[in-house]
Amino acid sequence: MATTRTGNTPVTFPTASGGTVASTVPVGAVHAPGSPLDRGASLVEGAVVLDDTVAPNAPWSAVVRRGHVLTIVDVGGNQSADCLLYDADDPEERYSVPDTLAWQGNAYVRTGTVLRSNEGRALMTVVANEIDRQDTIGGACGKESNTLRYGHHVMFQHGCRENFLAEAGRRGLGVRDLVSNLNWFMNVPVEADGALGIVDGMSAPGRRVAVRADRDVLVLVSNCPQMNNPCNDFNPTPLRMLVVDPAAVAGGTRSAAAAGTLGGTA
Fold first, then answer.
1. CA-closest candidate to residue 185, choices 219, 221, 228, 220
2. pLDDT in tens, 102-147
3. Which of 15, 29, 206, 231 could be 40's S-S partner, Cβ–Cβ 3.0 to 4.6 Å?
4. DSSP-based three-state secondary structure for 80
5. Above 80 in pLDDT, residue 252?
6. Contact status, residue 233 vs residue 201, Cβ threshold 8 Å
7. Could you tell me the residue ranges of all domains in the chain?
8. Which residue from 40, 256, 219 is spatially nearest to 123, judged by alpha carbons?
9. Side by side, which strands form the sheet with 217-223?
């Protein structure tokens, strides 16, 4: 749970690994009492090998093994899950927006989209999706962009860039490793004239997207703390991260790959 605070003293949030991350987001940046929350379930059948809850405003990371499927649950609805992908064995190979969009010839991420690396190779594939379209154009918020877009009164608010840096540091990565990202559940329409904007989301409590790892992939997620646009309905809520092994029978004997712990090792 977050520690209490007054003024601009940081609040401490837990990470999936058992550590903590300090947040300077205003105390109001937590989901309102009585918010409808739906933890959902995996979109793909299989033995569960990882089941984490990402607190509002917090980062998360895990290695998803080849063939395993990660389901991201939008527990409260319209909560943007900013996401970066890396080859777990060679992080120099990482998610590439231009390669992904060029190969599929479409600006949106939908069921069947292959999420490609800067080498043009498949990292993950969207195998199920309960949102009409997912975004990979809008980028990640951060202190600098927040100040530019919304004014100097928000300069103390941390954003997804800061979450990425905190979690990347745990994985031996740094500033040079941050690239353009995915935004699960964020609505960024592209108009006929090429204009785009961050508008009200199309998600709802319990909506899900599932991605299959086409190789061992390091996944970084920022549970977006943005409070200045509608990307999370001005009401940050938790995310649920479920990894299953489809090759193993749920409730039965797991495969050798499923027996490993994915959340704490690279």
1. 221
2. 999 999 999 999 999 999 999 999 999 999 999 999 888 877 777 7
3. 206
4. coil
5. no
6. yes
7. 36-245
8. 219
9. 59-64, 217-223, 81-87, 182-184
pTM over 0.85: no
Tokens 């935004």 map to which residue? 183
State yes or no: pLDDT of 262 exceeds 60: no
If pLDDT is split at 50, 70 and 90, which confidence band does 48 have? very high
